[in-house]
Design goal:
two-stranded antiparallel ribbon; alpha/beta; 2 domains; 26% strand; Spore Coat Polysaccharide Biosynthesis Protein SpsA, Chain A; 12 strands; ten-stranded mixed β-sheet
């Protein structure tokens, strides 16, 4: 059986520092599509120089942009990554073996996060399986922005090779993402008719920290684990506080 061709789909904006290594980890793909949202840096130029098909497009939201990137792929199978993610050598080899005789319509893989110069092994951040390799006609991105999920019709199998996520280089970068994600998340929650309750501002952030730091053993990740859990609790509080502000007008 001939191995099916695989496209790689990446969304990006101002990722000149990370797009190169992402594309290198996908050099085995038969096609690479980068959908760029008007980067002010050299993201598009670096992607084109690496042989990627580059499409410039306004930002409509995470889910719509990822579906557009998926639809822009020419081949029947596609692997979807963010610009700060990498396919490990072990995952690449496992995908190659699996594609000789595909047994499913989608494949999940454990994602491991590199956070401020160390790997996070707990906090609920690992293994955190992510569906990323799919038969294109059987998959669509869904969920609620900014938290997207690649949904598959039919069987999904779990691979063992790692997908690496080089998330935040600094606490400031993490705080910028919290600011962006909570703004979007609060707007989406309000559009769905949700409102902030007193427990959302009091108990929910505390439980987020307790679950990640204690139940998910974030304490074993040292200072980095403490920071991850604390900022995740802050993320929860900020989202519901912004939802409250929107509801008040």
């Amino acid at each position: 059986m001939t191995r099916p061709k695989i496209s790689a789909a990446i969304i990006a904006m101002n990722e000149e520092r990370k797009i190169g290594d992402c594309l290198k980890s996908l050099a085995w793909a038969d096609e690479t599509v980068v959908v760029d949202s008007h980067s002010a840096d050299r993201t598009r130029e670096l992607a084109a120089a690496a042989g990627a098909k580059v499409i410039e497009r306004d930002w409509p939201g995470h889910i719509k942009q990822k579906n557009f990137a998926l639809d822009s792929c020419a081949h029947g199978w596609a692997i979807s990554l963010d610009a700060d993610e990498r396919v490990s050598a072990a995952l690449r080899a496992e995908i190659a073996r699996e594609m000789e005789h595909p047994r499913a319509n989608g494949y999940a893989m454990p994602r491991k996060v590199f956070y401020i110069n160390r790997w996070i092994n707990h906090c609920g951040w690992y293994p955190a399986p992510k569906v990323r390799l799919v038969k294109k006609e059987k998959a669509r991105w869904g969920g609620i922005d900014p938290h997207d999920t690649l949904m598959v019709e039919g069987p999904v199998l779990m691979l063992r090779g790692g997908l690496y996520h080089l998330s935040f280089d600094t606490i400031h970068a993490h705080l910028r993402t919290i600011d962006s994600f909570t703004r979007v998340g609060a707007r989406e929650a309000f559009a769905l008719g949700k409102h902030t309750r007193w427990i959302d501002l009091t108990l929910r952030p505390f439980f987020t920290f307790f679950k990640m730091y204690v139940l998910k053993a974030g304490f074993l990740d040292g200072v980095a684990g403490l920071i991850v859990c604390a900022l995740s609790a802050f993320h929860t509080f900020t989202k519901y506080d912004r939802l409250r502000a929107i509801a008040r007008g």
